[in-house]
């Protein structure tokens, strides 16, 4: 599948696998291919390349690596450049992009309409791009999202709380994000899915790799009903270091993080610390004082690093202020209907103007779209302030003053 790179024959062909593209989107697609290349050359959160990308287009970064030209750039020494060049030989971005397209996904980069701008808070550690699998808009879904994380080897208490909390959040129209791992992560995803909610799985491997294997069916359900997201290109497998780096994306992407269970040295605490450093709300669920799996959460709460929450209402009470501040203004129409994508507009038209609203199945019949797609569109409309979830039903948001 891979191929050896040949020197470009034209300045616009400085990116491996860069076929000739004409029109206004040519430069954008060349930049996309270049960033796809860089996801193969670097590990997530590479601040050296991040600083470089703040100064140069990705295509120039790739060209410099290929030519072996060491720029006057902090942190980029000859040995690091040699490591990048060694990886570059077998990179085929066209094959990676096609592989993800075939699976029903895409590769999004900063500047795309789907790019969540809150990831820019990571500075030089911002993702080079994100490989996404699923049909919803990551930017819109992330507007009302909350991370629910915790121990892999969780207790029955932790599993119950994570599932219930996530189901309650989903029923309030919030998107639940987690890492698709065993334990609390899996319970959080399942809780949201069980009530027909939306969930985002942020992976430490390629979006086409089911890891852990025991969660294969769950990961497939997340891709079908929600979104799978990763910084790593197709086929890449997780490492211990990649799990830690993945946590910063979960923290930055969401409006706040809830830690359900975590021992004193749990990786879930790194997500909470990242969220706190990014000025996101950090919350913890208390557990039995005799449980070592709650010791990390208790220490976090006692130190003032997290607020105590016991249910979704308390989470929303804390996180809602940030959500209101970062979501589009609600003083008038959030987004004119004539600017909505056709499929989104069809779903909005299907929502009845009644206080009770209607379930997803009825809206699917009315709009003529599959239920899974209708669910995605409803959560997007909810993020934009058009609709809200009311139990198992969806209804129009009633604006003051008849707006």
From TrEMBL:
Belongs to the DprA/Smf family. It comes from the Bacteria. InterPro entries: DprA, DrpA_SLOG. It holds the Pfam family DNA_processg_A. This is DNA-processing protein DprA. The gene is dprA. NCBIfam families: dprA. Residues 107-318 form the Smf/DprA SLOG domain. Residues 1-30 are annotated as: Disordered.
């Amino acid at each position: 599948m891979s191929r050896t790179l040949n020197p470009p024959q034209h300045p616009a062909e400085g990116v491996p696998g860069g076929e000739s593209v004409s029109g206004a989107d040519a430069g954008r697609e060349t930049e996309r291919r270049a960033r796809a290349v860089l996801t193969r050359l670097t590990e997530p959160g590479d601040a050296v390349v991040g600083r470089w990308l703040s100064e140069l287009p990705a295509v120039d970064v790739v060209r410099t690596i290929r030519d072996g030209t060491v720029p006057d750039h902090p942190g980029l020494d000859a040995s690091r450049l040699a490591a990048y060049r060694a990886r570059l030989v077998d990179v085929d971005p066209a094959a990676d992009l096609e592989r993800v397209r075939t699976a029903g996904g895409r590769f999004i980069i900063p500047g795309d309409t789907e790019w969540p701008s809150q990831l820019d808070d990571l500075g030089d550690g911002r993702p080079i791009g994100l490989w996404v699998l699923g049909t919803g808009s990551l930017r819109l879904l992330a507007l009302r999202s909350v991370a629910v994380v915790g121990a892999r080897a969780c207790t029955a208490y932790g599993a119950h709380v994570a599932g219930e909390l996530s189901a309650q959040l989903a029923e309030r129209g919030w998107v639940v994000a987690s890492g698709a791992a065993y334990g609390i992560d899996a319970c959080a995803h399942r809780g949201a899915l069980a009530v027909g909610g939306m969930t985002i799985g942020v992976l430490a491997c390629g979006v086409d790799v089911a890891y852990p294997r025991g969660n294969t069916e769950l990961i497939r359900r997340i891709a079908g009903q929600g979104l799978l997201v990763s910084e790593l290109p197709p086929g890449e497998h997780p490492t211990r270091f990649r799990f830690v780096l993945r946590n910063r994306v979960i923290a930055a992407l969401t409006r706040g993080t809830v830690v359900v269970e975590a021992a004193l040295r749990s990786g879930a605490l790194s997500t909470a610390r990242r969220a706190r450093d990014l000025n996101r709300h950090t919350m913890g669920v208390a557990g039995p004082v005799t449980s070592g799996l709650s010791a990390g959460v208790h220490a976090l709460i006692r130190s003032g690093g997290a607020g105590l929450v016991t249910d979704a209402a308390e989470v929303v009470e804390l996180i809602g202020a940030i959500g209101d501040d970062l979501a589009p203004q609600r003083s008038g129409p959030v987004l004119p209907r004539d600017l909505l994508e056709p499929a989104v507009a069809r779903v909005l038209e299907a929502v009845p103007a009644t206080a009770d609203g209607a379930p997803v199945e009825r809206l699917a019949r009315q709009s003529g779209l599959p239920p899974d797609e209708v669910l995605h569109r409803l959560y997007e409309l909810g993020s934009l302030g058009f609709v809200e979830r009311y139990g198992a039903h969806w209804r129009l948001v009633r604006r003051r003053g008849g707006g």
